[in-house]
Amino acid sequence: MKKIFYLASSCLMAIAMFSCDKDSTEVSVAEVIVGSKFTGDTLKAGSSIKGTIPSRTAPYYMTGDVTVNEGDTLYIQKGVKIIVIGNQSSTSTFGQATNNPTFFIKGSLLVVGTQDAPVEFTINDNLKGDQTTLQDPATDPAFKGYWGGFNCDAANLAVFKWAKVSYIGGPWGANPPTGYSAGDPKYGISYLASKTNATLVVEDSYFYGSVDDCIRTQNVKLSIMRSKFAKTGKSGGEAINMKDGSTGDVAFNLFVGGATNGVKAASVSGTTHQTNINTYNNTILNTGYRQTKQGRGGSINYETLAKGNIYNNMIVNCHFGLRLRSPEYPDTTNIKYGYQYYYGATSDLVAEFNAATTGSVTRNQATDVKGGVGENDPSFKSFTLNLAAGTTAAPSDEAKRTNFFRSTDDLKLNATSKALNKGYTGFSPVNSVANLNVNGIFKPTVSNPGKDAGAYQADNSGNLQ
Question: What PROSITE patterns does the database record attribute to this sequence (predicted)?
Answer without folding.
Answer: PROKAR_LIPOPROTEIN (PS51257)
